[in-house]
Design a protein that fits this description.
Blueprint: E1 2-3, H1 9-29, H2 34-45, E2 52-53, H3 57-77, H4 81-84, H5 88-113, H6 125-134, H7 140-149, H8 158-168, H9 170-190, H10 195-202, H11 204-232, H12 239-258, H13 263-275, H14 282-307, H15 310-315, H16 317-339, H17 348-356, H18 362-374, H19 379-396, H20 401-407, E3 431-436, E4 457-464, E5 467-469, E6 482-487
Parallel strand pairs: 1-2
Antiparallel strand pairs: 3-6, 4-5, 4-6
Helix pairs in contact: 1-2, 2-14, 3-12, 3-13, 3-14, 3-18, 5-6, 5-8, 5-9, 5-16, 6-9, 7-8, 9-10, 9-11, 9-18, 11-12, 11-13, 12-13, 12-14, 16-17, 16-19, 18-19
Length: 493
């Protein structure tokens, strides 16, 4: 057995990360989600594999919280309001009502089968609902990673719906988990007939409002404040902007918690606010956060993989298979169709695809650590079942997103990305665009000074085949020439 110590932590950690990256590269060829492979690497090196001993649930939970803060913030940073505005209502409905329905349906099913003779454990109703609550949200890391990593281009604004749902449904799942832990604790301490238990249930709505209200308010305030700080602080060392923003992310999460709000919601909203404003050194900040997001994903999934004991998980495999199949084939579709019932413009095919992209990932596993830390009876079984279902979801749903989209005829070719001649400019300086000349473009003349361009646009470079030309007013232009244009964005809203 190998234990983590201060002497070997860096050595072991570097090997784990390096191995994960190599395996993910190989797995990409077979269409396997990278996050699944990170989990498997952790399990391979764990107690039932190569013998690394890691059983500290609190430390694993802390790693998960830190990672989720960065992942959700980066997801919000890349979310454009113009894209999510048309799908705001269905996305929020899925992240709230959909989570509650999934919890109720799955919890009821778990309670039903827990009394069967061939099922190894029997759980009370509250514990069954608690298990369902930990798994009720789709995982933001998994959804962001798969949709963006595989370059899936979907029709009918489905991509913004799925990303909005996965980014905003964690708070509801978290709230339900914490509430049910409190109920289970009260029942365990004083008996099912204790009136205090039902008092907790009656206060659930107040807790819900506090979590959402304080979380959203903190996220909005910190988002707008961050924009002002970043654009006015004028740091000499450019990399410090990204580090400062990272500190703001953790500060936002903490402040939301102090105000009894939901920190995950706060950092996600803060990311959306910042991402939809002009900020200094956006390119450097985005590059830094992209790298941090990948590091956090790898670290989080490796840690959770090390934490689980596959031998114990296998014992609960029959029960986990039943629950997983029920969630994927019945609970998730039923909750999606019922939630989206008022939104008649969303087609049947779109609802079917949303039902299938109910990916479980690190978030359910992290939430499953809360009952373990709280000492809820049966919490070890909950953790192992949730872990098994997560693996099942990543294997089945994670590998079939593109085929299912093709089957439902909801995918479309990715738009060609313009390379902008390999040139980038600071966001505050303007916006780059490419223009390919046609015969119609040259009707008024074939020189640059005769070319009719809107006010506020300037031609920076001309590319003709493989040749680059420095522009001036006398340069003769031809059909097929590509112009690199910088436009003034001062007057844009």
């Amino acid at each position: 057995m190998i234990y983590f110590t201060s002497e070997n932590l860096l050595f072991v950690g570097s090997i784990l990360i390096f191995t994960s990256i190599l395996i993910s590269k190989a797995g990409f060829r077979f269409g396997l989600p990278s996050l699944l492979l990170f989990l498997l690497v952790g399990m391979l090196f764990g107690s039932d594999g190569l013998g690394l001993q890691f059983d500290n649930v609190r430390q694993a939970q802390f790693v998960g919280i830190v990672a989720l803060c960065v992942i959700l913030f980066t997801g919000g940073l890349e979310t454009k309001i113009k894209e999510i505005k048309p799908v705001l209502a269905p996305g929020l409905a899925l992240s709230t009502i959909g989570v509650i329905l999934t919890t109720a349906l799955t919890g009821g099913f778990v309670y039903l089968i827990s009394g069967w003779d061939k099922i190894p454990i029997a759980l009370p109703l509250v514990t069954c609902l608690l298990m369902a609550a930990t798994m009720s949200s789709t995982d933001s890391a998994a959804v962001f990673n798969l949709l963006r990593g595989k370059n899936v281009n979907l029709k009918n604004n489905l991509k913004p719906v799925l990303e909005l749902e996965s980014g905003s449904n964690d708070p509801m799942a978290y709230i339900l988990t914490i509430m049910l832990i409190q109920v289970a604790t009260d029942i365990s301490a004083a008996g099912a007939g204790d009136t205090g238990t039902w008092k907790v249930v009656s206060n659930a709505l107040l807790v819900l409002l506090m979590q959402f209200g304080a979380g959203a308010g903190t996220g909005l305030f910190m988002g707008y404040l961050s924009v002002r700080i970043i654009n006015r602080i004028n740091l000499r060392n450019t990399p410090l902007y990204a580090i400062m923003l990272l500190s703001i992310v953790f500060f936002t999460f903490s402040i939301a918690g102090f105000l009894h709000g939901n920190g995950y919601l706060a950092v996600y909203i803060a990311g959306i606010v910042i991402g939809n404003h002009k900020i200094t050194n956006r390119k450097e900040i985005s590059s830094f956060l992209d790298g941090m997001t990948w590091l956090m994903q790898i670290g989080m999934f490796l840690t959770l993989g090390l934490l689980v004991e596959p031998s114990e998980m296998i014992k609960l495999a029959p029960m986990a298979l039943l629950i997983g199949a029920f969630m994927m084939l019945i609970a998730r579709p039923a909750s999606v169709f019922l939630t989206l019932l008022p939104f008649r413009k969303i087609s049947l095919k779109s609802k079917t695809f949303i039902s299938w992209v109910g990916l479980r990932g690190a978030v359910p596993i992290i939430f499953a650590t809360y009952p373990v830390i709280a000492g809820i009876p049966g919490s070890d079984q909950i953790f192992n079942i949730v872990f098994f279902i997560t693996l099942l979801s990543l294997v089945i749903q994670g590998t079939t997103i593109t085929p299912v989209a093709s089957l439902l005829k909801l995918n479309e070719p990715m738009p060609e990305k313009q390379d902008m001649f390999g040139i980038e400019v600071p966001e505050e300086a303007g916006k780059l665009a490419e223009l390919t000349l046609t015969e119609d473009s040259l009707l008024h003349g074939d020189t640059l000074k005769e070319l009719k361009l809107p006010e506020g646009m300037l031609v920076m470079m001309i590319k003709r085949n493989d040749k680059f030309i420095v522009p001036n007013g006398r340069v003769k232009l031809y059909s097929g020439d590509r112009l690199l244009i910088i436009s003034d964005r001062i007057n844009e809203p």
